[in-house]
Design brief:
Layout: E1 4-9, E2 13-19, E3 25-32, E4 36-37, E5 43-45, H1 47-64, E6 71-76, E7 82-84, E8 94-95, H2 103-112, H3 114-122, H4 131-141, H5 143-148, E9 151-153, H6 155-164, H7 171-174, E10 179-180, E11 185-186, H8 188-193, E12 213-214, H9 217-223, E13 230-233, H10 237-245, E14 253-257, E15 261-267, E16 281-284, E17 291-297, H11 301-311, H12 318-323, E18 333-335, E19 355-357, H13 365-387, E20 393-396, H14 403-413, E21 417-420, H15 425-437, H16 444-447, E22 451-454, H17 458-483
Parallel strand pairs: 1-6, 6-13, 14-20, 20-21
Antiparallel strand pairs: 1-2, 2-3, 4-5, 5-8, 7-9, 10-11, 12-13, 14-15, 15-17, 16-17, 18-19, 21-22
Helix pairs in contact: 10-15, 11-13, 13-14, 13-17, 14-17
């Protein structure tokens, strides 16, 4: 078997993993990335620092191996805008998918029908941190940056360009918001609806399915690997996690309980209801007859981190806190919309905000934390209902390291959850994609067989059935307030 390094360039952490013939990790490394939160809802990253984390983890895992590396497989965070020149150097700091500077613009687009028009053409709803509103914002407020740029892309293709010299983009990243999923080409009407026709040249053409690139001299020197080494550049982390977990049958889904809460369902049809709520993503995958209906809510484990900071709790004590409060959190209810840029799935509202209700003097910190964890699970159920989950549900991400929270997810969703036990699911998906592109035979069933299953507790699920109805009622009332 080829020895392929899988690199997952996350928002706050870059990870590299190498797997053996059975899909077990034999070498891994990680390095943190810096995220800058600025006034006005801006969230940015220094591309050179992020690129440095890639070099660090690749060199670290290479040193752990006893033989040569045969290929490099990249995946990582999606959305945002990473503006680069023709040589791959950023002309301004990278704008993260977490960014909220275009909140007001997106709200105006919702009022005037722009978001509806783009959704009608592409099946993807826009949110403040995706390319459409960010590019339109920059066109008004920083036109010189766009003038200096040769390409407006994403994290993975930015790294790929510096390593190979190629200007391209994976079709999964290009899916939101301008790609027609049926043709796998940009929809010119969607670009025009966003007022960006005059910036059309900044959009790199999507790479062909299973495209393979090569390390150039600069990339080889940066990583300490041979020039000419095969490199693949995608899919981005959401579809990569689905592939790595074993999502292969239409109707199957994956819950990624990470910084964000990503809910995805595999489908064999690019069709969608053009009159539905303009939210979520219809993502193309490496297989041209498979698509992922993505509903990535903004806040997952980031909400728990916030609550622990506010309450003076160590996040390592999460399981103990959840066990100390009964299902239903002793009457405390929450809405989990803690992102400053609102929510993007299964609805889009830049004004969405969190809330806690039902509090009294007898409630404890454990009740507050449990109410928030339950509300995030309710949000996941809402997303999966919108995405059309009917089959097996897989899960990954930092959140599933908590046995108590994973049990809440299973009980709220009312279905068993299969959790791969090997780390680096995104990197694994990138490696499986690279192996297919290089025609390397892999027993995918064996690679995804190492997993455990969390079963549903029927009596607790009944409690959460009522809780979910209350959640939807609270959300409906809150959306009316936000609209005012």
């Amino acid at each position: 078997m080829l020895r392929i390094i899988g690199v997952d360039i996350g928002t706050s952490l870059t990870k590299a993993v190498v797997f053996d013939h059975a899909g077990m990790s034999v070498a891994q490394a990680s390095a943190p990335s810096q995220v800058r939160y600025l006034p006005g809802g801006a969230v940015e990253q220094d591309f050179e620092q992020v690129l440095g984390t890639v070099a660090s983890v690749v060199r670290e895992v290479t040193a752990q191996l006893d033989g040569p590396v045969d290929a490099l497989a990249l995946t990582g965070q999606g959305d945002g805008v990473w503006l680069r020149d023709a040589d791959g150097f950023c002309v301004r700091p990278a704008i993260s998918w977490l960014d909220g500077r275009a909140n007001a613009l997106l709200t105006e687009w919702q009022r005037t029908g722009v978001t509806r028009e783009v959704f009608r053409r592409t099946g993807s709803g826009m949110f403040p941190g995706c390319a459409g509103p960010i590019l339109a914002y920059l066109d008004e407020h920083e036109p010189a940056a766009l003038d200096r740029a040769a390409v407006a892309g994403y994290c993975v293709d930015a790294v790929l360009q510096r390593l190979t010299g190629e200007i391209t983009v994976d079709v999964s990243n290009a899916s939101l918001p301008f790609l027609n999923p049926r043709t796998r080409h940009y929809d010119e009407g969607a670009i025009a609806a966003c007022g960006l026709t005059h910036r059309r040249s900044l959009l790199a053409e999507p790479a062909k399915s299973h495209a393979v690139f090569r390390l150039n001299r600069a990339g080889a020197e940066l990583l300490g690997l041979p020039e000419g080494l095969p490199v693949t550049g995608g899919p981005f982390d959401l579809p990569a996690c689905a592939i790595g977990a074993g999502v292969r049958t239409p109707g199957d889904g994956i819950l990624t309980a990470g910084t964000t809460l990503a809910c995805q369902v595999l489908t064999d049809s690019p069709e969608f209801d053009p009159d539905g709520e303009p939210a979520g993503m219809l993502l193309c995958t490496p297989d041209e007859d498979r698509y992922l209906k993505g509903m990535p809510a903004m806040v997952g484990t980031a909400g728990i981190d916030w609550a622990c900071r506010m309450l003076g709790i160590e996040v390592e004590n999460l399981d103990g806190l959840l066990a100390a409060s009964a299902p239903g959190a002793n009457g405390v209810r929450a809405l989990p919309f803690l992102s400053s840029s609102g929510e993007r799935a299964p609805f889009v509202d830049a004004a969405a905000r969190a809330q806690f209700t039902g509090l009294c003097l007898e409630n404890t910190r454990a009740d507050l934390v449990r109410a928030l964890c339950e509300s995030i699970a309710y949000a996941a159920r809402h997303c999966f209902e919108a995405a059309g989950l009917t089959g097996t549900l897989y899960a990954n991400g930092g959140g599933v390291r908590s046995a108590e929270w994973t049990q809440i997810f299973a009980d709220v969703l009312g279905r068993p959850i299969v959790i791969p036990t090997e780390p680096g699911i995104g990197a694994r998906g990138a490696v499986l994609t690279a192996a297919a592109a290089l025609s390397e035979p892999i027993d995918v069933d064996a690679w995804t067989a190492n997993a455990r299953t969390v079963q549903v507790r029927p009596q607790i699920a009944e409690v959460y059935e009522r809780g979910y109805a209350e959640y939807l009622d609270s959300l409906a009332s809150a959306r009316q307030r936000w609209s005012r």
